[in-house]
Amino acid sequence: VNFGGTVSIDTIATAGLYKLALALTPGSQGTVNVDGSDGSGHASLLDASQGPVVIGEAGSAQLTVGDGGRVNAGTNATTGFGWATMIGDQAGSFGTLVVNGGTGAGLFSSAGNLVDGNAGQGVVNVHGGGTVTVSGTLFIGGVAGPGAGGTLSADSGGVVQANAVRIWQGSTLNASAGAGGSVLIGGGPATGGVEV
Questions:
Q1: Radius of gyration, alpha carbons of the chain
Q2: Which of the two ends of the chain, N or C, has the fewest CB atoms closer than 10 A to its terminal CB?
Q3: Rounded to whole angstroms, how far apart are CA atoms 98 and 132?
Q4: Digit-coded pLDDT (tens) for 167-188
Q5: pLDDT given for residue 123 in this prediction
Q6: CA distance 91 to 23
Q7: pLDDT tens column, 111-140
């Protein structure tokens, strides 16, 4: 989705793409919403399990998952890094992932590493019962430099689960436990590891 395009997925949908890239070129914008279910209770689904998902490759993009919607991101072995999700990839890009609740909890599942703010800026907001699972390492920030870095916030019942977390220079992790947010590392808050 490029150049201001918006895709709203309100019923069952499948996009088994090798690479799903939002805002592919500099200056472009992309928005994807995955939410709701059909009359039989089947959740909306964006299945990109055959390749990685890039939110804000060179432009600005937002992917919102809520009201029971689901997104599956697959890994890309050809990169050599095993990342499945990249948010704010190239310098000057801006990517946002929002996972929330509503009538049902949204779920974003990354089958490999998730990079929040590589050479661009990345934001991940998980709240209202939404869940993000990362079958690998959650990198908050990537390439250090002006305008690069990531921010992750989990509150109001939002849950983020990853095997490990690495927080790079200029990046922020905010888990508001008092507001019901959780970041679970390696299966629970006391296992796995955080590298700062």
A1: 15
A2: C
A3: 10
A4: 887 788 887 655 677 888 875 5
A5: 96
A6: 13
A7: 889 999 999 999 999 998 999 999 989 999
DSSP string, 103-147: SS--EEEESSEEEESSSSEEEEEE-TT-EEEEEEEEEE--S-STT
DSSP string, 15-71: ---S-EEES-STT-EEEEEEE-B-TT-PBPEEEETTS-EEESSSSEEEEEEETT-EE
187 by Cβ neighbours in 10 Å (0-12 / 13-18 / 19+) ranks as: exposed
Provide the whole-model pTM: 0.85
Indicate the pairing of strand 182-185 with strand 159-167.
parallel
CA distance 64 to 172: 20
- Quick one: 41 exposed, middle or buried, by C-beta within 10 A (0-12, 13-18, 19+)? exposed
CA-to-CA distance for 179 and 39, rounded, in angstroms?
A: 33
Please state whether 77 falls in left (phi above 0), alpha (psi between -120 and 50) or beta: alpha
